[in-house]
Amino acid sequence: MAAADPIISIKGLVTRLGNRLIHDRVDLDVRRGEVIAIVGGSGSGKSVLLRSIVGLMRPAGGTVEVFGEDVLNLEPGALRGIQKRWGVLFQEGALFSSQTVAENVQVPLREYTKAPQALMNEITAVKLAMVGLGEDAARKYPSELSGGMKKRASLARALVLDPEIVFLDEPTAGLDPIAANAFDELIRNLQQSLGLTVFMVTHDLDTLRSIADRVAVLVNKKLKVGTIAEVMRDQDPWIQDYFSGPRGRAALGS
Amino acid sequence: MGSATDGSTPWFHVDRTGRTLRLTAGGSWTVYQAAVVDNALRRIDTNTIAVAEIDASGIEILDTAGAWLLLRTRQQLNDAGLRIARFEFPQGYSPLMGVIESEKLICPADVRTRESFADVLERLGRGAHDVLIQGTGILGYVGRITIEWLKTLYAPQRHFRFTATVHQIEEVGLNALPIVGLLMFLVGIVLAYQGADQLSRFGLDIFTVNALGIGVLRELGVLITAIIIAGRSGSAFTAQIGTMKVNEEIDAMQTMGLNVDDVLILPRVTGLVIALPILTFYADIMALIGGAMMCYFQLGITAPAFVRQLHEAVNINTFLVGMIKAPVFAYVIGMVGCYEGLNVERNAASVGKLTTRSVVESVFLVIVLDAGFSIMFSVLGI
Fold it and tell me: Based on CB atoms within 10 Å of each CB, which residue in A177, B211, B234, B247 is the most buried?
């Protein structure tokens, strides 16, 4: 397959938290339209990687290119143009607690489009329906929602502008197996119908098996990328433990 | 799907021939441009039309919003009684159209609601009810803390947290010395200056010392210190306990069998009740020193003269009248601070809102109590 330009391109990324080195010259290319899962032990820097790409953390070294633009060296206004082309789902949902679900979903619409209120209401309803939330959820405040509903509402907000990339930070954390499975299917359906690229930080082996096209494993401050089968062949002890331990075998059936 | 940023302006044409309406669409139908065609689409006139053909195959870029507009328009024409003979959209968007079509959407999510008079009445009623509930809540809380405190007196080894209390005394008292000292010193200067300014018109310069001494020792020393401490420590208590509540630390304590009142509230209130009188004493001295300096520079009253005049103007009662208020104010500030901290709810706005409320309530109660004390002392003739 002729390699089209990667939609995210990370080269030589070095990140530090205080004095601790988190990533040691990490490279990663994410292809347009794929679902890539970032896995690694607790504290290995998965969320730091995601945050470095979306601009919440400044890396100590290396380059990050999204949509072909060097996001670390943009002029102040230019970042906005890129930010409307991606959506981020934070681990706890990160819904604005003083606004209803519908108002939350409409925040990007208000910020980036001139759509009239009636049209915004309609688009909100479409997006909420797409993530499996009914009309009654739209009027609720985040404190009135269950964990699964919060994640869905956040996903609706992340997708409201039809972004090209969606970043998911531990999307199934805290969900029961049924909800987690439903969420996996939801991501898969949306990815296919909207043509999304999905960048997902996760622990969840079942999610990996069901929707990940490629896996990037963060181990010893470096990244090993490939399909699940390729990565499982790596002899690194952590990788063997992770994929071939009891849970790994149960989920991946090897 | 291409980038949904810019793109040519969306457009559509409506051709009416006989009883057929033909809608042709083109351009970029994306969320960024949807507003351009939204209104006009809603207003398509379907008079004398029986059949509709929608040809959207000329659209360059389509996203969810654009797909929605097409489907909504089709539904709209259908509802107006037209038969949809043709519905074409650009190649490659079938999955997207399928996903949206499958959601049977009738009522959009309405966001704004307007308030009617009944709503206003309801809010009033709810507000009154909330005040009553709050009142009983406070009463219950004060009672509970008092019982805990009595238990501590009877069995100190089981209930009294010595280290925590001493820590609070350090935090609330010792660490406040610089700011209280500085502010009271300045208050003394200001008071002396104002007093001197007025009294020197009548040749009564020396009585500035009387005004200063009585004003500071009876009223201002304790009142201003209490207000400073309400802002500094009252808010700190609310924010600390409130954040612990949000982090579920209070829940964790309770499940471990730790008594929240003993561990968190009593040390804070006790620490404050011990620290505030000492701070007040110190504040009185700083204010008098500031006043004395002003008297020297403004009126030429030397230090020995100042002390002599002060000795004649005030007696032990003047001092005690001020000091007696200190533990009362401390108790109020501590109790209010901790109470509002426990009231914090699990959202971001709550900590800030209740911290503000706790400071306002403490200052309000302190000033009201001060007025009450003044009245009481004047009745008693002290």
Answer: B234
Of the partner residues A121, A192, A193, the one whose CB lies closest to the CB of residue B110: A121
Number of domains comprising chain A = 1
Query: If you measure CA to CA, which chain A residue comes closest to B97?
Result: A193
B72 Cβ under 8 Å from any chain A Cβ: yes
The complex scores an ipTM of 0.82
Domain containing A111 equals 92-162
> For B335-366, how does the pLDDT look when each residue is reduced to its tens digit (9 = 90+)?
999 999 999 987 778 899 999 999 999 999 99
Going by C-alpha positions, the residue among B63, B77, B62 that lies closest to residue B22 is B77
Domains by residue range for chain B, with CATH: 11-102 (3.30.750.24), 137-380 (no CATH)
Query: Hey, is B74 helix, strand or coil?
Result: helix
Helix (H) / strand (E) containing B29: strand B20-29
Closest residue of B to A116, CA-based?
B35
- Residues of chain A found within 8 Å of residue B39, distances taken between Cβ atoms: 116
> Is the Cβ of B266 closer than 8 Å to some Cβ of chain A?
no
Residue B217: exposure state from Cβ atoms within 10 A (0-12, 13-18, ≥19): buried
Tell me, yes or no, if B114 comes closer than 8 A to chain A by beta carbon. Answer: no
Q: Measured between alpha carbons, how far is B24 from B13 in angstroms, rounded to an integer?
A: 5
Across the interface, whether the CB atoms of A125 and B108 are under 8 A apart is answered: yes
Q: pLDDT tens digit string along B3-45?
A: 444 568 889 898 888 888 899 999 889 998 888 899 888 888 8
Give the chain B residue whose CA is nearest to the CA of A194. Answer: B96
Q: Does B7 touch chain A (CB under 8 A)?
A: no
Look at residue A133 and tell me if it is in a domain.
yes
Detail the DSSP E strand segments found in chain A: 8-17, 20-30, 35-40, 61-66, 69-70, 86-89, 165-169, 197-201, 214-219, 222-226
- Tokens 């808010």 belong to B235
